[in-house]
Amino acid sequence: MSRVDVLASLGDLPAVVEAGERARAACDELRWHEAFRRRWREVRAESGVRSACASAAVDGARVPLDAVRAMALTSPDDGATELVARGALRAAALVERLMPELGGKSSSVLPPLPQLVARIHAAAAAGLVVPDDLGRLRGTRAPRDLTGLGAAPTGAELAARLELLGRVVATSEAPALVVAAVVHGELLALRPFVAGNGVVARATARLLVTARGLDVTGSVIAEGAWARTPNAYLGAAAGFATGTPSGVGAWVVACADAVVDGAGAARAVAEAVRAGRLDA
After folding, report:
1. Burial track 60-84 (b if 16+ CB lie within 10 A, e otherwise)
2. What angle do CA 25, 185, 260 make, to 5 degrees?
3. What is the predicted pLDDT for the residue at 76?
4. Would residue 71 count as lying in a domain?
5. pTM above 0.90?
6. How many domains does one find in the chain?
7. Do the beta carbons of residue 124 and residue 203 sit within 8 Å?
């Protein structure tokens, strides 16, 4: 390659290689479930609802799954908790529209990363921030969320780091797991928007895992693992934010473990769709 792929060395770390192999095996096994032959859209849609429900829960907005599922059919009349969940559901729907079709002949072409996360934020944060802040970097203001991850960059530094991240993603040939994990972790560290950053980071990672070919079904529910252990999730994200090899490597391994867990959850959804029953 004519350019140095800054993520390649991370993908070569033994622990990351082993974790990536586990994630790949779990996704490959999921791909051949019978439900994906003809009903993959149903599995992906239901998995998206569950991903949204779990992603909101990571941020403390715990809403019952059946209530989140019903949000797709109801008009907004929400409190603060429901606003987060509804935003996560909109973000999930948006990234699903950007995912390639299962078995399609061409891969999806995504917008540049800064534009992509702005679009996801506009979907996720409607009602949480004033309209002028939707999809816009927060400039010199401090983020209102994820305050336990330390200081976040502001102003020109924030814009430059997000632009650099976009260039790295656009040119990297590192495994999908590594790219998605680094984007996920960096968005949590940067917190580019006033609020809604966690949902944006997780939705973006979900899209990249699918668009880059790890989870071709688009149904892995990695957010479920994070929702069960939010403190461990934030601890791993804080380790990534240090930029140390051990902290970054541990984060990627944690993301791989979440994919393995999420593939199992997606298999349960696929089985329920095949059997014609979806339980809350």
Report:
1. ebebebeebbebeeeeeebeeebbb
2. 20
3. 62
4. yes
5. yes
6. 1
7. yes
